[in-house]
Amino acid sequence: MKSLRAALLRSPHIAWRTVIKFFADNGQFLASGIAFDLLLYCIPFSLLFISALGYALGGDPTQALSVVQDVFRQFLPATHKAFTQNLSTVLDNRGLLGFLGFALLFLMSSITFGSIRISLNTVFQVRNPPGFVLGKAKDVLVMLVVTALLVLMIGLISLLALAKSFGSRFAILETLLLPGAALASTLLGFVFTFSIFYLLYRFSPRETLVRPALLVASLTGAGLFEISKAAFIWYVKLLQSNSELYGSFAGLAFFLLWIYYACVVLIVGAEVGWILQQEMRSSEAKTQN
Fold this sequence. Notes:
The chain is mainly α. The chain has helices at 2-8, 11-24, 27-56, 61-75, 81-84, 87-92, 94-123, 132-167, 171-203, 211-239, 250-288. It has one domain (2-288).
């Protein structure tokens, strides 16, 4: 704890070293690779989730659309409209699309989590990465855990969306439930985002960080992710006056930028954790001497 406290007192120095190491590791290109693969992963995952939701809600398209829109708002601030406008078509064809989503999910997940593993190995300076078979097996295991966590989070957000939908029918319940539901949704989003960052930093790379650095890295990633959501909302509103230049591609362009921002945050959080670990080891060495 003393080494952690001493390292945290050097936060400005850690921040500066993080910036230097981010560019030394070509973090912007690592984030680009993850963003591209993550985009491929999101397509079958979204199709599978929407199809399963349509069946879970008894085929009621109104409830399904409401729940899906709330989930998209949690992850895609100010850009969800580009993807929720045509969801009714997806729900109408959920049988075929669900089958395709299930088939493609495992293929795309192996590619996506493989990119995350390789990128984190680069950031953590892993000298002996695992072999191909062991690496892919680890990718599938991490994918299953992260997907289960996402499904759990989406389920809880869906319950909150249903509670808000029910409460909006009654004036008294709407006054009582809506503020609490909004706060609960924000807290759940942060907790699950922290959990996803922790799982990725802990299990994806061959060598992980010590626990204090791992917790700080996960908190940094989750905090930057929430801050970037607010910043991205402001950024999109700033560019809305120029949206005519993009036409129907504006929503897609904003979505791609958001995916890239999220992947940059993933790399930055890992860099912070690694730099903090080095500072802790340096403090321990000075104490022993």
